[in-house]
Structures are given as structure tokens and as C-alpha cells.
Amino acid sequence: MSVEEILTLDAVALDRHQQRMVKFAHDAYPIFRSLTGAGVRETLALLKQDLPDLKVREVPTGTQVLDWEVPREWTVREAWIKGPDGAIVVDIKDHNLHLLGYSVPIHETLSLGDLEEHLYSLEDQPELIPYRTSYYVDRWGFCIAHQQRMALVPGDYEVFIDSTLDAGSLTYGELVLKGRSDREVLVSTHCCHPSLANDNLSGLAVVSSLASVLGSLKESERRYSYRFLFLPGTLGAITWLALHPEAAETVAHGLVAANLGDTGEFHYKMSRGGSLSESWPIDRAVEAAACQLGVDLVVEPFVPFGYDERQYCSPGYNLPIGSLSRTPWGRYPEYHTSADNLDLLSGAALKGSLQLFLAVCNELEQEKLYRSKHNQGEPQLGRRGLYRTLGGDDQGRERELALLWVLSLADGKRSLAQIAQRSGVSSELVGWAIEALLDPGLLEEV
Ligand code: ZN
């Protein structure tokens, strides 16, 4: 089977991956995840069942990472609130989202008025529990449905949070698949949200299946090396960048994956570099893959906000990395609430997302890049039968322009599609010019 066939997957294999992704989401949903701690390790252990070569990395608390520091590790054993009648009214056992992420320990009895300062709820979505964290400021708090909050009666409330914030480590998962080239395709997804399905588990599910399919190729069959990162949002990416100063040289293309299990249409946020100049190969590959699969794709320019592309695309790195999702963060009503649960995940949507990621990899694997071999003055095209000898021929003029554009833009980093986009010359004509220039050795494939 060709690489293209393996990366396309037949219907049976796609269904098998769909079942695997849905099962993973169900198994991982109840795990109490956070920026650090046992939940991340448990989640990575679950991924390792399908990806035996996944490496679990531990970076100690206090390690300086760029402008940040790896924080203390958070462990929670119990967290609840008892009402004036002594009955438990809120308990982390009922929902992982009830506890403000990184809450410091407390055991106190306080009035409803004082407790209110530590409660978080959504007035306009009164039935849902919000997701809130306080990673970088010491706080404690509980997240509850607004309707429950409104029903709390005045009186004394006993609050108990049995948590510790101790020296430990930040944990992330990394899987590297070597290819013919040391240049890498980096695929990154976050693993730090507790009991949220689309914003977290869908990315982990799709990226792990993607890694499994690419892992089924032999090293010699992969043009690129691939690196899959499963890390806590923001600080995980910052930590990885701090440990990999060579990333600017080794990362050839990349994608940040998130929100891939809802039924919304695909959204692609371009790489920073591609947004500032002409689109980069990863940007072209995503568009070409969507086109080839016949799926709608909304393309948006880079903004320095969102998921971990914020870190990978910061100006000192400016990695060629875009962000691919279905409905983007913050644009669906269930986002960062208890309604982002397993009911929101569609098996078919996860499967469609995996297909698109595979198609992008296929584009990158197949894409040819060209380099001009004569760039000190124009090569003499007439001598090679490539230049009109008679004026006034429109078709001839168009062809000459295509030849000159290819010679001007073929720098070893551009594909046919990019040359066409940048020059405004049709793909057909650029394709013709490339063939015409390859023949006499004026151009080479990189
Ligand atoms: Zn999130």
C-alpha cells in the first residue's frame, strides 16, 4: 500500500478509530485533570495503552521556563460545602468542575455572605457549572449552578478543601516518530481540563489516533519526522519551548488541535508568519486537504490569543504552526461549562476530524518544493526553446510570465500551490512552467 492509501484509511479502519476515540473520551472524562498532578498522569497512562512509545516527561517545580516557572503540583483529596443543616450542598465527588482549579486548602465555617465571595456561577446559564481556575494567585473557591446558588439559605456553612500545593512536577506526554528527514511536523494538544469533553478530550482523542496511524508507517515511508505533544495549556507549551531551543530549526510545519468533537464546521487559524505575508505550507496544506475531502473550512488570520499557537507563534519562535478546530473556543454556548460533556461529542465528528488531520499530513508528505538553479540574472530561456522569438503572441507571453515567476519564487521552500498563490498565475500554468524548467535543469525538486 502507498503512503497515501495508508493515510486515507478505509471505512473499516475509520470506524475502528471512531470507536476508539469515543471510548477514550468516556474513559478519560471522569479523571480529575489540572495543570499538574495525578489526573494528567492518569490521562497520559490511558493514551499510552494505544501509544506504547509515548514518553511521559516530568519537569520539576521551580524550573525556570522562559519568563515563567514550573508551579507547585496540586493534589486534591476531598472538597465540599456543608449547609446550615449539616447536609452537604456541594461536593467535588458529584462533579470535577465544582472546585476552583488550584484551590488552596481550607477548613472553616463562614456565613453565606462570606462564602459568596468564593462562589462562581453563570447568571445567564443558571443550570450550568462554570469551569474556573486560579493557577497563579492563591485562592480557594467553588463553581456551582447559579440556580443552586440562588437557593442557598442564610446561615453558617462549613467549607472543607483537603488539597496540597507541594514541590512536584509538570507532566506532559511526547511521542516522536522519525522519518527520512529530521525536519518535524509538530502536533500539539492540551490535556489539563477536568471533565470537559470537546475542549480537551476531543483533541487528545483525535491526535492520539492520528499518531497511531502515522506510527503504522515505516520510518523510511515518512518524509517528515512527527512529534505529538499532549501537554497542559500555556505552561506546557512554554515548558516544551524552553527545553527545545532548536525548535525554530527543526519544526517544518505544525498544528494545534482542539475542539474537534462537536458538529460545527471546521475552522483554521493561520500561522502567524502566513498571516503576515503569503500563506505558509501548513496553511496551504490545510486548505488543500479540506478541498480534497470536500468539507467546508473557515480560514481566519492569526491573532495572538487562543490555544498554544500563542506560544509557538510568539515572535522569537514564529513557528509555522496553525490551529485547526471545529467550532473555535468560546464560540459555542457549552464552552467551559458542565454542558461541554460527553453528549456534546459526536463520533462522526471525531472521525471527520481525524480524516482532515490525516489529509493534511498526506498533503505535507506528498507536497513537492522547488528551487531555482539559476538566480544570478535570468537564465537564457531562448537558447532552451522556452522564449518567444516573435512578438505579439498573448499565450506565449503568459507562459513566459509563468516561467519567470517560477524562477523568481522557487526558493526551495515553496510548492506549486504557493507559487500560484503568490504570483496570481493559474496552477495549471505554474505546473506547466515547473515541468518546462525541470527538463533543462533550470529547476530542481528539493
Ligand atoms: Zn479551555
What do you see in this structure?
It is built from 15 helices and 19 strands. The model has no long low-confidence stretch (mean pLDDT 95). It folds into three domains: 3-70 and 169-366, Aminopeptidase; 73-165, Domain of unknown function DUF2172 (Glucose Oxidase, domain 1); 369-445, Orthogonal Bundle (Arc Repressor Mutant, subunit A). Strand 4 and strand 5 (88-91) form a beta hairpin. 35% of the residues lie in helices and 22% in strands. It has 446 residues and is of the alpha/beta class. The strands form five sheets. It has an eight-stranded mixed sheet, with helices on both faces. Strands 5-4-9-6 form a four-stranded antiparallel sheet. It binds zinc ion (ZN).
